[in-house]
Amino acid sequence: MLVLSCPTQSYDWGSIDDIPGFQRREGDGKPVAEVWVGTHPLGTATILGPSHSGEPLTEVSGELGLMLKVLAANQPLSIQVHPNSAQARAGFAAEEAAGVAIDAPERVYKDPYPKPEMVYALSTFDSLVGFRPTAEILRLLLPIQHPVTNALAKELRGNPGFAGIVKLVEGLLLDPPSADAVAEVVEGCRRALSEGIDIKRAYATALEIADYYPGDVGVVVSLLLNRLTLQPGEAAYLGSGIIHAHLSGMCLEVMVSSDNVLRAGLTSKHVDPAGLVQCLEEGMSRVARVTPQLFGTSTDVFAPGRDFALSVTQSSQADPGGVVLPASGQRLLVCTGGEVALINEREEMIHLRRGDAGYADAGDGEIRVIGTGEVAQAYSPDGAAGRLDDLI
């Protein structure tokens, strides 16, 4: 087992305080959006401690197929979609052939891998995920009484369902309304709210987003999307092809180790609206909460599919012998509360406090947690974190 030092990402939507506080350190006044726990080339963890100190984790683990992130959103971030395997391979190959530098702002496909992910809330965590049903969209467009939303409603009545909604999104993104028109739609939402009208928080969400991105077409697109609120300890699966945008809060994300994101709205980064529309998948239009399974008496296991699973284990002084973690292959670990010791089958021990990260492999075997705290563990259900080549 190893204790890790993990890189952070300072995107403009991040929080000044949340991640520094989680890691028990003073912030520097700049927003910190993410902590990357894993071996992605754009953000590889390094090893702490007497053995392999300062070396990249890849020297011990190889390139892992999983990544675990801590994410803190202080404001809405981009409307986005992640590609599936075929799209990621094709997009990466095309940009490589075109000679687009891997760190170029306009680069979309940073690697040839898909990016399904699961979010696990550490605080109240709000997102937009998937499209609302046609009838619900029509109900919420009509009270706004603006030419933009009236036209959207008319078009959707003539072409209902997923295909019709995608057509609306395509039209909005490729030929967006003016900033003034978006502002007028926002005023329509404000008027409806003042009259006591809101439909599943659609208008309140649009106003919230408009405060950060006035005039952005993403404000209008948000009206078409479900608002999802996760309470601490709840999780949702975001498969490849599902449109989403995180709004606020702190979470863990477990995902295939990829940084492929197609964005269109609510961002200062490069956008690819046509690419986003092409990656939308009909089967991924619904919100997919993940119901945990109980392992032992102290562990919730969230396993949405074959790509990855997340276990969250509570330990206390009431368990003097320790609590056994599930899984026995390669694992990425984050202490999400308190202070714990992890002991492997060879009786080797590492200590983690809130915000610390670790790595374990098959040689560590069964791991016990001792102390008063909480540990999250990302792993593959088949017993290994996997190599990236397995995903091609």
Topology:
Elements: E1 2-5, E2 8-9, H1 18-22, E3 34-37, E4 39-40, E5 43-44, E6 46-48, H2 58-61, E7 66-73, E8 80-81, H3 85-97, E9 117-121, E10 125-131, H4 134-141, H5 147-158, H6 161-174, H7 179-194, H8 202-212, H9 218-222, E11 225-230, E12 235-238, E13 244-256, E14 262-263, H10 273-279, E15 288-290, E16 293-295, E17 299-302, E18 309-315, E19 323-324, E20 331-343, E21 349-353, E22 357-360, E23 368-379
Antiparallel strand pairs: 1-6, 1-22, 2-3, 3-7, 4-5, 7-13, 8-14, 9-12, 9-13, 10-11, 10-13, 12-15, 16-17, 17-18, 18-23, 19-23, 20-21, 20-22, 20-23
Helix pairs in contact: 4-5, 5-6, 7-8
Binding site for Zn(2+): 80, 82, 117, 244
Family: Belongs to the mannose-6-phosphate isomerase type 1 family.
Pfam family, one: PMI_typeI_cat
